[in-house]
Amino acid sequence: MERILARLDEHLHKNDYAAAERHLLYWLEEKKDVPAVALPLYNELMGLYRKLSRHDEAIHAAETALSLVKENGIEEHPTAATTYLNAATVLHAAKKTEKSIPLFEKARAIYERELSPYDTRLGGLYNNMALALVALSRFAEANELYLRAIAVMENAEDGGTEIAITYLNMADAAVAEHGLTEAEAAVTDLLEKAKELLEEHPKKDGHYAFVCEKCASVFGYYGHFRYEKELSERARRIYEGA
């Protein structure tokens, strides 16, 4: 698995999603009868299809992964929680947010029981679940989870990029709840905090490039066009040099 995932990372760091898909499908065909390999591969495939907005394929991968969890009797294992989380994120991206919440809750129950309070997987769960709650106008619950995500990532090595994303998510949540005019001061503060973290982050690798890409459009949405362009160019240079 380490070798397979290392090769997948090489494709993703080059932004070569077609090669990443071929790589995953090849190994899924080779190892479809080995659950310990197939399940993490389906989890990766979910994320890839979600990133590419190929929602039907992402949902199919999620359903297959959830079936593997049940067939192998690992419904209460952290591995299952990761699958619940990824499947929930897929459903939210496909505008099936109401259906995502029970899966988020199952993942949260297992993670909070089985993992350290500072495990970065918890931070990712809180962030993604909060996004879904904002879409359902459950703002107080979402804000609590964003703060929990920040608390986790503050104790993580290289957690600054994830905190930056959380700050931008909080800005969007403030606008969704209060409107752009009333939330203007909060948005300005949150964007400045996110920018500071992006600028001081030490590792300029493929993951950093992905974060820059993801954050660029948010800065552009709020009128920071120069910084949007700067982040996009930064990501392009990293991908081309990978």
Which tags fit this structure?
mainly alpha, 242 residues, single chain
Describe what is shown at a glance.
The protein contains 12 helices and no strands.
Walk me through the structure:
This protein has 242 residues and is an all-alpha fold. The protein contains twelve helices and no strands. The chain has helices at residues 2-13, 17-30, 35-51, 55-71, 78-93, 97-114, 120-135, 139-153, 160-178, 184-200, 206-221, 225-241. It starts with a helix and ends with a helix.
Give the secondary structure arrangement, pairings included.
Blueprint (H helix, E strand, L loop, with lengths): L1 H12 L3 H14 L4 H17 L3 H17 L6 H16 L3 H18 L5 H16 L3 H15 L6 H19 L5 H17 L5 H16 L3 H17 L1
How much beta, percentage-wise?
under 5%
Low-confidence residue ranges: none
Give the H and E element order.
Answer: HHHHHHHHHHHH
Cα gyration radius (Å): 18 Å
Largest sheet, strands/sense/barrel: none
What is the count of DSSP helices, taking H or I runs of 4+ residues?
12
Q: Report the strand count.
A: 0
| Helix content range | over 70%
Q: Briefly note the structural class of the backbone.
A: mainly alpha
Whole-number mean pLDDT: 94
Described by the principal axes of the CA atoms, the overall outline is globular
Q: Distance between the terminal alpha carbons, to the nearest Å?
A: 22 Å
